[in-house]
Design goal:
nine-stranded mixed sheet; single chain; three-stranded antiparallel sheet; 12 strands
């Protein structure tokens, strides 16, 4: 029983230690996430120039982009193609862009200001930092060599 209690306390302390007070304060000022960019950490890739994303003067290639409304529901999804992004829109225009695929209607993002987390399609991000001078949040590179940039209002 004591061991379990100590483990729970250690987990809670670790969670709060990962987020600095500045990050918690900054998250309080975020109204909503307006876009999510999944970018490739490697810069030695040759893809369409329209898939480039500039972050602090460095250029990265985007794998996909999701744009959200103020409630966190996906409005647009851009998947990476060989010649640029392929647009999918919740409210598509025939011949101009593609309609959402079935699973795209489920894409949702939420900010949990109380716990200092970003909940993205059921995946909880605790380890992130704000990019100074820009309204962007960066989630570190994962094991597949991708990282996430959230743009917010």
């Amino acid at each position: 029983m004591k061991l379990t209690l100590l483990f729970v306390i250690a987990c809670i302390a670790n969670t709060f230690a990962q987020l600095s007070p500045q990050a918690l304060d900054s998250l309080q000022q975020v109204k909503y996430i307006k876009a999510k960019y999944v970018l490739l950490a490697s810069q030695n890739i040759s893809l369409a120039p329209s898939r480039l994303y500039t972050l602090k003067g460095e250029k990265y290639y985007g794998e996909y982009v999701t744009k959200y409304d103020h409630r966190g529901s996906a409005l647009e999804f851009y998947s990476g193609g060989s010649e640029g992004y392929i647009p999918h829109k919740r409210y598509s225009t025939y011949g101009k862009d593609l309609p959402f695929e079935a699973d795209m209607y489920e894409y949702h993002i939420k900010i949990d200001k109380k716990h200092g987390t970003i909940i993205d399609n059921g995946e909880t991000h605790r380890n992130f930092h704000f990019i100074k001078g820009e309204k962007k949040i960066k989630v570190p590179t994962n094991s597949q060599g991708r990282f996430i940039i959230y743009e917010y209002l």
